[in-house]
């Protein structure tokens, strides 16, 4: 294979599977190894040139996971108070807590999750800096949990509960929400090492503010004058739950996705 040019700024990554090299230009590694992507343009879209322990070689793109590099600060359980459960899912429960006199979301993983998995997710979120992606402020080892930005309005799925049959927002508001989601995904997919969320759904699209779901026929301010909650068109949508996120290098799908993003981003 023709020699490739080194990247001036290697991209940190972590391996998510064991790999045994079969060719002389490949390199073996174990799951969880910290590596650096030296070059993406190797002549084969399925392989990157990486460095492991000072040695270089080709590795399958699908075996690499983006690494945020820096972990958020460590938080101890006794530093947190006022736990109020907000919701939960298959792998975790979420609580509203107080830490250093500020309100946060405390994502507590189920007991079977290894701390290294939570640390990987924390590093990934910590590497992302976008207005439509939830922020991470700390990580706790006992219990295994993440301290996240609090989204008081819960998630999009909560807007269509069984006891709220009258909720029917106009299409323009739904497009505003879709644009915010698209902008967050666009940011993730256009990094040097693209990240696929892999679990986009209404439950993982958080509402930063408490929404007004009753008086949205007219909107002339950020807050509803009757209930004091945030107008639907002024809500901030935040992507969350990156436990299944991984490197995404499907170029055909990427092209289709970009066309969809461009349509949404040009709508307003």
Automatic annotation (TrEMBL):
Its cofactor is Mg(2+). Transmembrane segments: none annotated. ATP binds at residue 107. It catalyses: L-threonyl-[protein] + ATP = O-phospho-L-threonyl-[protein] + ADP + H(+); L-seryl-[protein] + ATP = O-phospho-L-seryl-[protein] + ADP + H(+). One of its GO terms (molecular function) is ATP binding. Keywords: ATP-binding, Kinase, Nucleotide-binding, Serine/threonine-protein kinase, SH3 domain, Transferase. Its EC number is 2.7.11.25. Residues 80-268 form the Protein kinase domain. Residues 8-69 form the SH3 domain. PANTHER family: SERINE/THREONINE-PROTEIN KINASE TNNI3K-RELATED. Belongs to the protein kinase superfamily. STE Ser/Thr protein kinase family. MAP kinase kinase kinase subfamily. This is mitogen-activated protein kinase kinase kinase.
């Amino acid at each position: 294979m023709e020699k490739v040019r080194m990247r001036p700024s290697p991209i940190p990554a972590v391996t998510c599977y064991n790999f045994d090299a079969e060719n002389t230009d490949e390199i073996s590694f174990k799951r969880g190894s910290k590596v650096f992507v030296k070059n993406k343009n190797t002549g084969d879209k399925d392989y990157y040139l990486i460095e492991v322990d000072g040695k270089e070689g080709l590795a399958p793109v699908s075996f690499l996971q983006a690494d945020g590099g820096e972990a958020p600060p460590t938080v101890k359980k006794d530093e947190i108070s006022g736990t109020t459960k907000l919701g939960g899912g298959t792998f975790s429960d979420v609580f509203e807590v107080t830490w250093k006199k500020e309100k946060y979301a405390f994502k507590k993983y189920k007991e079977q999750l290894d701390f290294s998995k939570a640390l990987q997710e924390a590093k990934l979120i910590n590497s992302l800096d976008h207005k439509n992606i939830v922020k991470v402020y700390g990580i706790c080892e006992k219990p295994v949990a993440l301290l996240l930005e609090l989204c008081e309005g819960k998630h999009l799925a909560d807007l269509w509960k069984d006891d709220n049959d009258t909720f029917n927002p106009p299409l323009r508001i739904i497009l505003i929400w879709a644009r915010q989601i698209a902008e967050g995904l666009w940011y993730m997919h256009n990094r040097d090492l693209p990240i696929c969320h892999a679990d986009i759904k209404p439950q993982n699209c958080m509402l930063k503010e408490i929404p007004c779901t009753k008086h949205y026929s007219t909107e002339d301010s950020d807050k509803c004058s009757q209930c004091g909650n945030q107008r639907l068109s002024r809500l901030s949508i935040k992507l969350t739950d990156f436990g299944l996120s991984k490197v995404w290098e499907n170029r055909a799908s990427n092209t289709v996705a970009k066309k969809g993003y461009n349509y949404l981003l040009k709508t307003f």
